[in-house]
Each structure stands twice: as C-alpha cells, then as structure tokens.
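[09:14] KT: can someone run the structure on this one? pasting the chain below
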Amino acid sequence: MNWHHGIPNSCLVFLLLLSFSTSSEPSKGCIFGSVPIDTSDFPSIVKNLKKLLLLDYPVPVPVNLKQDEFCKELWHVHLIHRNLNRMINVSGSELEKSIRKLMIHTTFVEMCDINDSCVKFITTNISEFLEPIPSYLSDLRKKMEEFEAHDVPANFSNCTVIHCQPGQSFSVLQSCLPLQPSKSRHQSKRRIATPNTTPAENPIGCCL
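[09:31] RB: done, structure tokens below
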C-alpha cells in the first residue's frame, strides 16, 4: 500500500471507524475506487440554474435525517439527485440542459440504491434548495479523497439505508420551514411552472 503525504493516517482511521460504526445494513454497492465528483464548475452551474427557475418554485427538502457524520453528505446528495430528476420532467430544453450539467456530479449515487423510505420533507424555494449543493458535494469529495490518497476504496456500503429521527409528524415538520415568496422582478421570464397545489394539498416530499 502506498501512503501519500499531506493526510495523516489518523484521518483515514477515523473515516474507516465511522464507516463501520453506522447502524445501516451493508450493501454490495456504494464503493468508489476513484472520486466521481468534480466540483470546479459548481458556482457557474448553480448561477445559471437560478436564472432559469422561478425563485419561489417549491422543492421538498428533508427535515428528519438522523445525524451521521460519515453518511450525511451522501444522503443529502441522493435526495438532491431525486429532486433534479423530477425537475427535468417539467422543464424545457434549455433548463433541462442546465439541470443535466449539475446531475453529472450526482448520478453516481444511483449505484448505491439508497433506501429513503423514512424521510419526511417540507417545501422550500428553489434558491434555498440550490444554495447548499456545492458544499454537500465538496465535503463528500474531500471525504472520498482521503480514502483515495491512501489507495483505499471509499466504502459507503453502510450508508445505503437512510436513518431518520423518530416521533415527528408531517404536520409539525411542514410548519418548520414555510415556502418563502420570491422578491424577484423577473419571475415572468423564468422557464419552469410552479405547481398548482399547495403543500397542504399535496405534501410533495412524502411521495418521493
């Protein structure tokens, strides 16, 4: 095994301990021999997406994920990827191209076959949905790079079942983060329609 400079051995040991200590059932997939994420163009991709979207377009975001230092970024990227897939189904050709540019960096989660059946959602606007995406992907990339630097595959097979905090009803979760109207003066120029249902009529995240 070749040990590279710059990353102390204790970092890899810590990540390995986290990966083995998670309570999820192991999967045969979700093991990466190389880093599948390139974060260099995220700022421009997100900026272009914001230009093409209604800023108050409702998007479901998770609110009951259990804190897991090893799996949390992968879980968020999985849920982001599902949202992007749904957005493509209601987008025009120009918007679809921009979404697919972002999905290049999230498609890798499909090989993990993550079970997210316990996740509950509330709706927020598209701007708040897009804002944390670069940091989730960057943090996940750094975690994978620590494995790669020591010639060890990044093993996330114990992260394939999302764990959630118990005891929260959807009605309570829904009130935590109401949809915030956009103040943009250019909403009429956006290229994606806002659904005609309200969160109360259609808890969009519950049926993802």
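[09:33] KT: thanks! The radius of gyration is 18 Å.
[09:34] RB: yep, looked fine to me
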